[in-house]
Amino acid sequence: MEVVILIIVFIILLALGVPIAFSIGLASISTLIVSMEPSIAFATMAQRMATGLDSFALLAIPFFILAGQLMNRGGIANRLINFARTLVGVFPGGLIYVNIVACVLFGAISGSAAAAASAIGGFMIPKMEKEGYPKPFSAAINITASTTGLVIPPSNVLIIYSLASGGASITALFVAGYIPGILMAIGLIGVSYVYALKNGLPREKASTVKEMVHALGEAIPSLLLLIIVMGGIIGGIFTATEASAIAVVYTMLLAMVFYKEVRLNQFFEIMFEAVKTTSIVLILVSTSIAMSWVMSFENIPQDLSSFLLSVSDNKIVILLIMNLILLFVGIFMDITPAVLIFTPIFLPIATNLGVDPVHFGIIMVMNLCIGLCTPPVGSLLFVGVSVAKIKIEDVLKPLVPLFLVLLIVLMMVTYIPELSLFLPGLLD
Amino acid sequence: MMGILLVDVCWQVFSRYVLQNPSSFTDELARFLLIWLTLFGAAFLVGQKEHLAIEILSNKLNPKIQAILMNSSVLVFAFSVMVVGGLILVSTILELEQRSPNLQIPMGYVYLAIPLSGTLISYFSVMNIIHSIKGELE
Q1: How many domains are there within chain B?
Q2: Contacts for A291 with CB less than 8 Å, ≥ 6 apart
Q3: Share of chain A above pLDDT 70, in %
């Protein structure tokens, strides 16, 4: 009964175009009011919203957002691109791999897929067009390659998953993301290689060792951030939140003092943008945490769990069903709300079946990453086609093989837990 | 003002790390600032109409009716949960005289962000509704 109220109210509100955060809040309060006196229900919801925000771990999110936006404007992208070009430009279709490698590096440093798509794509796609690469394929590569930034640490989505899961270690999740993220990049490179050979795409002239060293020297201050942040977290020197604050200070120095690409008045503008993005994400966190409390108060995850288990108690089948549901959800919903809504529902089922919460987090994020590239609601798709200045319809055809390879990697990561759990296992 | 908050939070965490002085009051202050920042940012975004929503279905509705229904839903939530519920919460906690462990700030003042933000959101959504209705008359 309560499930029905929750779902119906939620879907109606979403269909009306009510912001997701408020749809979640209203659906939860309508459910709670059935079994509680209104005034108590209102106060309980308000309290859950406040306590949901009262977390030191959450602070990492605004800082990583700010650091990502600083990097976006701070001249870091083109230095990474130059470095990537000396490494992989010489192969057939070289600029495609340059785009992929630069997206991976930028995503790994900034933790933001949208920043990677716009910073790398804005520079690479026009360049690729000049060299005779078909624009739709360049855009498709840029869009899909930037998703790796959400899987490879540091990643805000993984921090959000950690909160929604009620205790999966952020460090373990971060470390777990490396292999799946790199596998995604390798898959994309494989498809590109076939494409490049078939279409006879040009290659860059080989770089001399001197050029390589020069490009590496230019890129090192940016790459160093990766080592400081992740090294500090893995080595237990500081928490993810402290690492994120250090990332902000470091990128500020890099962008404003060292590369001199951001001026002080621009910095305030960037900070204002970061505050807006933070509010969008965190108000969602706030109402979602209230909703997950309402759901467990009404025993909703248990009900859904026993329903799913009545369909099948086979681990492989249940994981497949959950993957399909998440893929479907990802088509319509952005990654942050989807993680917040579905983690409290799916995670108990998955852990019942013996799936590790860290492993499940990686499955979930990879899955929803694919949804970020699909119409009608793919935020990366929108960024990618707007920097490439093409229509969404044009990019769909070259996206298909790239989706297929990402799905194959997703299946591998789903059914081979060691791909995610091997590296965190080394930490213990 | 929100920018200053962010610098402040950033500086708190940074200074704590550099000064090797793990005082937990910065942790507490940072968390409280984050609550205020998020809730006021959210109110501001209602005014700017920049919240994350799914627009595929609602695009097919009459835009004025959609805007009115959407803003009314936001208003109902902001008023009932955030203003009424928030005020009940704040007054209960103030009566209990619950204080934060390190800063000794009454927790009621921290949670005051909810009814205040709720009031702003209600105001913005009423303004948005009036705007939509006026637009229809013209």
Answers
A1: 1
A2: A24, A25, A27, A28, A341
A3: 99
